[in-house]
Amino acid sequence: MAIGGQAGTSSRIENYMGFPTGISGADLVWRGEVQAMKFGTRFAMPCRVSLLERLDDGTFCATLDTGNRVRGRSVVVATGVQYRRLPIARLEVLEGAGIYYAATEIEARYCRGTEAIVIGGGNSAGQAAMFLSRAASRVRLLVRGTSLAASMSNYLSSRLEADPAITIHYQAEVSELHGEDQLDGVTIRNAVTGATETVATRAVFVMVGAAPNTAWLSGLVELDEKGFVLTGPDVHTASPFATSHPGIFAVGDVRAGSVKRVASSVGEGSVVISKVWEYLTASAG
Ligand SMILES: Cc1cc2nc3c(=O)[nH]c(=O)nc-3n(C[C@H](O)[C@H](O)[C@H](O)COP(=O)(O)OP(=O)(O)OC[C@H]3O[C@@H](n4cnc5c(N)ncnc54)[C@H](O)[C@@H]3O)c2cc1C
Predict the structure, then answer these.
(1) pTM, two decimal places
(2) Atom 19 (ligand 1): residue with closest C-alpha?
C-alpha cells in the first residue's frame, strides 16, 4: 500500500545510525525512496503478490491480486510482518474509531488532553507510550507479564518507568470496549486478581506483536512453526539469507531469527544482493 512497511508507521526512530536526534519513519522512508529511485529502482504500488510459482524454465512467476503476472530469475522475500489483533469483543468494529495499530502524529491528535491506553510489552508499545505521553493527559501501558525486562530495550523501559505521565499496569488486559460507533472507554482487568476498572478513553493502541506475511509463498520454501521463513543453517544453505528453495532469498522481519529492527533489515537487504548476483551468474552459466 505504501513504501516503507512498518518503519513508515513509526513516529520516531531513534536507533538508526546517522540520525542522532531521531527521525520520523515517514521522513526516513521518503529519503529511502528518493535514494532508491536515483539508483534506478522501479516501484509498483499498490500491489500485492498473492501467489508464487516456479515455472518449467526455472524462472519464478509472481501473480498479483490484479491478476497480472511478473517473472524473475530470483526472488528476495522482504514482506515483513503484520500486526496481531486481540480477542476482544467488537475490536474490529472500532478499528480506526478508537482502536489503532500505529501511533503517529495523526493518532496523537485524537488523544490530546485525554487518557490513552497502549497494550503490549515490546519496543513498539514502549515507543508509542513515550510518544503519546506528549499529547495525552496520561498514558496507561498494559503489559501481560510481570516485568518489561525480557521484552523491551532497557533504555526504553527505564524512561517509561521514570515518566510521571505514564502508568504501567502489569498482568493487565482490556476485557471490554465501550462506545457505539466511537470508543469512549475500556474495562481493564487484572488477570490474576480478576479486579476490574473502567477508564474513559478515546484511543487504544494495540501493539502485541505481529505475524509474518508468508502465505503468498505458496509452500515453495520451508517456514518455522510460526510461519517465518527459514534460512541459512536451518535449511543447510551457505548464505544466511538463502531459503530452502534455490533462487529464493529472505531478509528482514519475515526471516526466522532476524533481529526485528530497521538497521538489521536494511543491512540484510544490502548484503543479500551479492548472493542474488552469485546465484544469477551461476544459474546463467
Ligand atoms: C510502530 C513501529 C515502530 C518501530 N520502531 C522502530 C525503531 O524505532 N527502530 C527500529 O530499528 N525498528 C523499529 N520498528 C521495527 C522496524 O520497522 C521493522 O523491523 C522493519 O520495518 C522491518 O522491515 P522489513 O522490510 O523486513 O518489513 P516490513 O517493514 O514489515 O515491510 C514489509 C513490506 O512488504 C509488504 N508486503 C507484505 N506482504 C506483501 C505481499 N504479499 N505482496 C506485496 N507486498 C507485501 C508490506 O505491505 C510492507 O510494505 C518499528 C516497528 C513498528 C511497527
Answers:
(1) 0.76
(2) 261
In-domain check, residue 13: no
What is the position in ligand 1's atom list of the atom closest to the CA of 50? 41
Q: What is the pLDDT of residues 265-284, one digit of tens each?
A: 999 999 999 999 999 999 88
Q: Hey, which of 10, 107, 127, 221 would you mutate to test ligand 1's pocket, going by the most ligand atoms within 8 Å of its Cβ?
A: 10
Strands 99-100 vs 248-250: parallel, antiparallel or unpaired: unpaired
Q: Is 214 in the pocket of ligand 1 (CB under 6 A)?
A: no
Please give the distance, rounded to the nearest whole angstrom, from the Cα atom of residue 6 to the centre of ligand 1.
3
Residue-wise pLDDT for 35-81, tens only, equals 999 999 999 989 999 999 999 999 999 999 999 999 999 999 999 99
Question: Which ligand 1 atom is at minimum distance from the Cα of 1?
Answer: 47
Is residue 111 located within the same domain as residue 185?
yes
Structural domain boundaries enclosing 216: 47-82+210-284
Residue 82: pLDDT band (50, 70, 90) is: confident
Identity of the amino acid at 28: L
For the CA of 15, the nearest atom of ligand 1: 9
Q: Are residues 215 and 78 in the same domain?
A: yes
